[in-house]
Design brief:
2 domains; binds adenosine-5'-triphosphate; 7-stranded mixed beta sheet; binds zinc ion; 22% strand; 320 residues; alpha+beta; binds magnesium ion; 3-stranded antiparallel beta sheet; BirA Bifunctional Protein, domain 2
Length: 320
């Protein structure tokens, strides 16, 4: 990763919270009406002002990739359970998955459900797994669709995605939501093609975030694979340089927040989905993910909760 050696963020890059009674960043976002409480940690409404930033960041990502000829696809925030099962997500992240369950009883079961509800007892007995699962990452619904088209063309394929994603990781850090939007570009082809794509986006993403006045560091990273076997997978991923994150201090300097991630899956999805290069060999894939809420929150944390008072250069980049 030439030019992207691990860096460190110096203390002092995070503005102090306002003086007076200390309020958490999350509470300040609620107070300012930017996020709206639902009673569940990590599940929030967003104000119009918040959304105007999300949309502007999304547009920036579109602009950066405009010359590349990516095919834009949008999926609803759920995917077929059969595809989810085959994807391998449950091997790595059983704790994060969100499955959709629906009532499948008769009228007596319905009466029982209502009685349980009334009594404050568990009413979920007759709920059964449906054929849909919530999307865990924007690129997950794409691989089976691409594989069904047959072999890749010689120069591979490039897709542009955006989706709400679900991960069951309730948290008081506003940057760790249960439902959030991920903008992604996904490249499929030879190892050389997908690695060149990732290198290019490391540069583009870094320039974009620096241009928004955010302090950042690009660091090797790993996914939080579940359990003891997961620890080995995580170490391999990190040591082989398969995942990099662009971190910005938002909640703290010590634990900065991954706002973009750059992932090389090697032949994992190619093997899983039978995705082939033009010559019949297994396709490699890579994706770059922009966390739209996280980038928005990083901007709010560094430039303040009043968008009108953001630096002119930043406003210009976002809204022209
Ligand atoms: P983290 O290490 O912080 O959990 P991650 O490795 O799980 O992040 P990815 O799986 O690479 O993140 O997801 C792509 C992008 O989606 C991240 O770079 C981040 O910006 C965003 N993202 C991931 N999880 C969340 C979340 N719980 N809430 C908001 N944004 C998220
Ligand atoms: Zn992805
Ligand atoms: Mg995570």
């Amino acid at each position: 990763m030439d030019g992207f050696a691990a860096t460190s963020l110096s203390p002092g890059v995070l503005p102090d919270d306002e003086a007076g009674e200390p309020r958490s960043f999350l509470d300040r976002l609620f107070d300012g009406g930017l996020l709206i409480r639902t009673g569940v940690d990590g599940l929030y409404g967003r104000s119009g002002a918040f959304e105007s930033v999300v949309e502007a960041v999304d547009r920036l990502a579109t602009g950066l990739g405009a010359e590349d000829g990516a095919e834009a696809l949008r999926f609803p925030p759920a995917m077929a359970r059969t595809a989810f099962e085959r994807s391998g997500y449950l091997k790595g992240f059983p704790n994060l998955a969100g499955t959709v369950h629906c009532f499948c009883g008769n009228e007596a079961d319905h009466a029982n459900l209502l009685a349980c509800l009334e009594a404050g007892d568990d009413w979920t007995g007759k709920q059964a797994a449906s054929e849909v699962v919530l999307t865990p990452a924007a690129c997950y619904p794409l691989y089976p669709v691409a594989a069904a088209r047959g072999r890749l063309p010689a120069d591979g394929l490039l897709f542009d995605l955006q989706s709400y994603c679900f991960r069951h990781e309730p948290s008081l850090e506003p940057t760790r939501m249960q439902l959030f939007r991920m903008r992604e570009y996904v490249r499929m082809g030879s190892p050389e093609q997908v690695l060149a794509f990732r290198e290019m986006w490391l540069e583009r993403g870094t320039a974009m975030m620096a241009g928004l006045g955010l302090p950042l560091a690009v660091d090797p990273a790993n996914d939080p694979f579940f359990g003891r076997a997961g620890r080995m997978l995580a170490n391999n991923q990190r040591n082989q340089g398969l995942k990099f994150e662009l971190n910005v201090p938002v909640n703290s300097v010590e634990k900065p927040t991954a706002c973009l991630s750059f992932n090389y899956h090697q032949d994992h999805f190619g093997l899983t989905w039978g995705l082939e290069q033009a010559d019949g060999s297994v396709a490699h894939t890579a994706c770059v993910g922009f966390g739209l809420e996280r980038i928005t929150l990083a901007l709010l944390r560094h430039h303040g909760l009043d968008l009108a008072k953001w630096p002119a250069a930043v406003r210009e980049k976002l809204w022209g």
